[in-house]
Amino acid sequence: IEIEKSAHMVRIRGVEETKEQELLNTIILPLAERMGLEVKEFEKEIEFIRRINSRFAKMNKLPRDVRVTFVRREMKQKVMRIMSEEPLTILGKEVVALKEIPRRIRETRKNYRFLTEELNKDSIRFRWLLPEGMIVNWQAKNIRLETIQEAREFYKQNERDNATELDEDNIGNYGNKHQRQRYKKVE
User: Which residues fall in a compositionally biased region of kind Basic residues (predicted)?
Assistant: First the structure.
């Protein structure tokens, strides 16, 4: 149910907070204009809109995120597409549109951090699966990792492969066959 609900939601980050601010007007006017729709038309597409409290925003004295829930999933996708093409400016600041991901799924994805950090560092593409897992584009193949155990095995296997490639490369740079054997013994 949470996943289905979040399919209609967009989280907008960076909208400045002011006293007596009416979120509906603050966000709808620029979005409707960008999408080329009348304000009344666009208002019909929004189920509700509100600020979200978070510890991170409070601790860092940042404006709270705004969650917009759309009536139709298609409208959410259009908003995400339009805002990804060119940033939207609201009240003089650039704002970002993010997918709304349920807390339980975000917590599960934290367990994969060891792998995602390495993949990002090496610029290897991956895509999240719902409710758990990921698809990694590795050596021109899509590898499906559906559990944390599969992710750990993938990580360990590729860690070993990288280590042997490095060792072979280093050994290959040291002279003839006898010198390479000597180099192996010294290690």
Answer: 177-187
User: Which residue, among 20, 40, 45, has the nearest Cα to 29 in the 3D structure?
Assistant: 40
Burial of 148 (0-12, 13-18, 19+ CB in 10 A): middle
Structure tokens at 1: 């149910």
Cα→Cα distances 76→5, 67, 107, Å = 12, 11, 24
Q: What is the pTM of this model?
A: 0.63
Query: Would you state the structure tokens that stand for residue 65, as one six-digit string?
Result: 């995120």
Among the residues of the chain, which ranges form H helices?
Answer: 2-6, 23-35, 39-45, 55-59, 73-85, 103-110, 113-121, 148-172, 177-186
Token pair of 49, please?
A: 């809109």
Query: How, if at all, do strands 134-138 and 141-145 pair?
Result: antiparallel
- State the Cα–Cα distance between residues 79 and 74, nearest whole angstrom: 9
Burial of 40 (0-12, 13-18, 19+ CB in 10 A): exposed
